[in-house]
Amino acid sequence: MATKEDFDNLHNMVRRYVVKIRSSGAIRGRGWSAVTPGIVFLKEDSFCYIVAHANTFSHGHDCDPQPRYEVVFPDSNRTTIEFQKADVQFCRCIATFLIVNVHLENDMVQAVPFSSFGLEAEEVVYTLCLDPSETTIPKPSYLSPGLINVVGGRYFTQDCRPENFTSWGSPVFDDEGHLVGICFAQCSVLLALDVLGISLVLNELHGTSQKPIHDILDYIKVKAHKLMINLS
Asked: Does some domain include residue 133?
């Protein structure tokens, strides 16, 4: 396990890769809200590409057909941008969307790095969990350490202590702050897609064929730049 100083440094590093997605609305006159994580997979001067859990966009929908969505960045301005569900793409348990025409502090919001190593049972990992009691974002999260239990072909299980909505897309990191997975379900332990599993979903979503994670992100970056040109 990391020392307290290493642990705090790791948390300070990885929180820059994660945004809050605030969902809210009203059901029969009573307000509802949820706060779930999104992960910054790409960050350019004028756009961010964010990956989240598909359940983020189903919460409250049975009775509220017009929920509101906002993404809150962890920069010093707490930049908050509203977006529409129509802008979100879905594939299996993953949802992705672009936030365009956004200008953020480079050092406060960063694209997540990915682990290039395979996972092993009993390996220590760290899940970033959102604190649902917090309404501001000076430190909107905490790291929960745990061990990998089972490693599958595209997923793994781990025993980090979950918070509300942790299984809805919370990122899992190694001790160097590299992304090793995204939580997608909970059944006594947390289940997470590994980097291979994430890349397979993104390939399916974008109609590409078995590109590794960095290649599929390069492909998405080119598409995003073309979109920005069309919007200008």
From this structure: no
